[in-house]
């Protein structure tokens, strides 16, 4: 009889503890569910793409130019690293090349690399070949919209500003489930230059 009472009390105690635990789990899961719902509605409001970076591409360019005022920018990448988006900006002057990273949320700038150019790239050769046209540059939001509309669905996740055959262009990676499409968009006109899908 004592064993049954002890067993009954043990079960009631465990049930009570489990109930307390599940209450706290429920409150955690409901708050995380509401956070997820908020995040989802935010991402849907921006055409399934998070382009609401606190630091615009123009701000990132200014941060680079403050670090290396006598150089020209040769490439800009906006990609995720350890859960944060970073601008990776490369540039060049007549004798050296540089790399700067700018946090897209905090605007924190870190100088990553500074090194001498090869002999064939010195005296302004690489500078003239690779300098990007930064005039009337389309925003991340605009090129994301152009690229996702071109693909028909999906979400823009990575952006690169580069140059080929004298044309400065944005390359936008659009993810639609497992399907990845890279869309090259003229950085000034918004024209689609090329599109490549990798299933």
UniProtKB/TrEMBL annotation:
Domain PepSY: 54-111, 138-196
Keyword Signal carried by entry: yes
Keyword entries, A-Z: Signal
Comp. bias (Low complexity): 21-47
Signal peptide start-end: 1-18
Annotated region described as Disordered, given as residue ranges: 21-52
Keyword RNA-binding included in the entry's annotation: no
Pfam assignment, any one: PepSY
Protein name: PepSY domain-containing protein
Organism: Enterococcus hulanensis
